[in-house]
Predict the 3D structure of the following.
Amino acid sequence: MLSIIIPTLNEEKNLAVLLDSIKKQGLDNYEVLVADAGSTDRTREMARKYNCRIVSGGLPARGRNEGAKAARGDILLFLDADLVLGDGFLRSALKEFKIRGIDAASFCLEPNKGSTGTKLLLDLFYNWPIRFSEKFLPHGAQAILVKRGIHEHLGGFDEEIKLAEDHEYMRRANDIGRYAIMRSDRVYISLRRFETDGWAKTYLKFLMVELHMVLFGAVKSDRFKYRFGHYGGSGK
């Protein structure tokens, strides 16, 4: 069984689009858990409309962990609320996951709108670097597919980390299992991070976070001033 876990905070519009794309996948043996951090909009109402199970969340790491504790599946898929899954995404991803014997995986990202130039920027600043570093420096952002046993062995996401806890999670997963970037499909993401803060500022922030992780370890201080819900929901 597949358990899809989505941390949320005031995501009613984005969540509806994501849940609709999940429903259109045509899978039978799956569940969706929404780990909500106290939304004041219609996020929980939207989750109930799509028959999701709702658990109390918090910051993204805690939300994912709480969702995983309540999940019934042996495979977990953690998704940010502002994503969209393309047609056939889940079937192709699960098939590749099984055939390749992967234990923990992430995906390349595709903008859900914008020009060819926008796609090229995302390839240049994220997709190509994570593919290049796949064998020696794992990454995992916005969508993570993992075996439940691996997640439990890791003790989940580190809730003390302020930013890039998903990358840190994948690096620990790589130490005990087989990590990979999925080839079968990409996830479609919102560009709200880049539209709000700008491409250059966003890239430089995450470059500094990457350097901090490599040189000093995970970011457990507030030096990068991350705020959950800053972009109108759970996007970082």
Summary: The chain has a mean pLDDT of 93.
